[in-house]
Amino acid sequence: MRIAIDAMGGDHAPELIVQGAIEAAREWPDTRLLLVGREDEVKAYLKGESLPNLEIIHADEIIESDEEPVKAVRRKKNASMVVAARLVREGNADALLSAGNTGALMTAGLLIIGRMEGIERPALAPMLPTMDDGGMLALDLGANMDAKPEHLLQYAIMGSIYREKVHGIAGPRVGLLNVGTEPMKGNEMSKAAFELLQAAPVHFVGNVEARDVLERPCDVLVCDGFAGNILLKAMEGTAGPLMKELRKAFTRSWLTKLAGAIMMPGLRQLRNKMDYKHHGGAPLLGLNSLVVKCHGSSDAMAVKNAVRQARIAMETQLIETIAKEISGK
């Protein structure tokens, strides 16, 4: 099992990416981790650490977060993300993990690794936190801004297989993000998608409103990338300010500080529920090989958890199962 890690991608690269890789290499000695990036910089953060399953692959260019994805991937042939994608395409790695530019990673996945037969648009599928700790897989949350009903059908099938294979949920419930729960609600695309999902080989439970997401009304939430990304950013933007306001409220007086000390375990638990680091990364489903997109602000814990996530996906033959189901072969 070999995972190519884009060591130069992300807000805290390469330091925290390398630290996460070190922790993962120690935890899973049977997994070979290929750190792709500027060799001198990567070595500096290894700090003399020598692990038999950790290797550096030199790549001297970096795709920045504000670069135009297609131009960057095509022009920067020796960028860490591009080199990592080539390792996968050429069979020298089984999966790619990156916290870098999302658009560039999607482009590298499509142009270098290739799209799965029968899939028109790959989907970004992160786990959304829920109050019962079960989490909800949502797709697409930003890979494609424009989608057709047929794309949402493919998302539903891929997401259902992912929940079964990676999370062990038998017959995962599939919901469609909409402005109301009634079947006739929504725009023309969502109405057409509703009909397709009713006839699909998945456990479709109907429309789901955004206000109900944290209560986990389904195990797989299907939506187009535009609406899905707005949902994701709204959730991310709410969690931080909410915790800040709670911190302020519990430090206003000695009485509130005492109350805060008593409630601290519960508040930490709430913070962890909303923390992306515990989920690792979001797979780009619909590509020929496993590609995992980590949050841009990923720290060492997030990288390690993304490696764990990738290991489970490969052990359960996720990509092979999706390809077989979609192609019907």
UniProtKB/TrEMBL annotation:
Family membership, please give it.
Answer: Belongs to the PlsX family.
Under catalytic activity, the entry for this protein gives: a fatty acyl-[ACP] + phosphate = an acyl phosphate + holo-[ACP]
List this protein's GO terms for biological process.
Answer: fatty acid biosynthetic process; phospholipid biosynthetic process
Subunit organization:
Homodimer. Probably interacts with PlsY.
In terms of Pfam families, this protein maps to: FA_synthesis
Secretion signal span: none
- List locations, semicolon-separated: Cytoplasm
Q: Which domain of life is it from?
A: Bacteria
Designated name of the protein: Phosphate acyltransferase
The terms describing its cellular component in GO are: cytoplasm
Pathway the protein contributes to: Lipid metabolism; phospholipid metabolism
A Gene Ontology molecular function term of the record = phosphate:acyl-[acyl carrier protein] acyltransferase activity
**Top-level enzyme category:** transferase
Q: List the EC numbers from the record.
A: 2.3.1.274
Give the UniProt keywords, A-Z: Acyltransferase, Cytoplasm, Lipid biosynthesis, Lipid metabolism, Phospholipid biosynthesis, Phospholipid metabolism, Transferase
Q: What is its main location?
A: cytoplasm
Q: Which InterPro entries match?
A: FA_synthesis, Phospholipid_synth_PlsX-like
Physiological role: Catalyzes the reversible formation of acyl-phosphate (acyl-PO(4)) from acyl-[acyl-carrier-protein] (acyl-ACP). This enzyme utilizes acyl-ACP as fatty acyl donor, but not acyl-CoA.
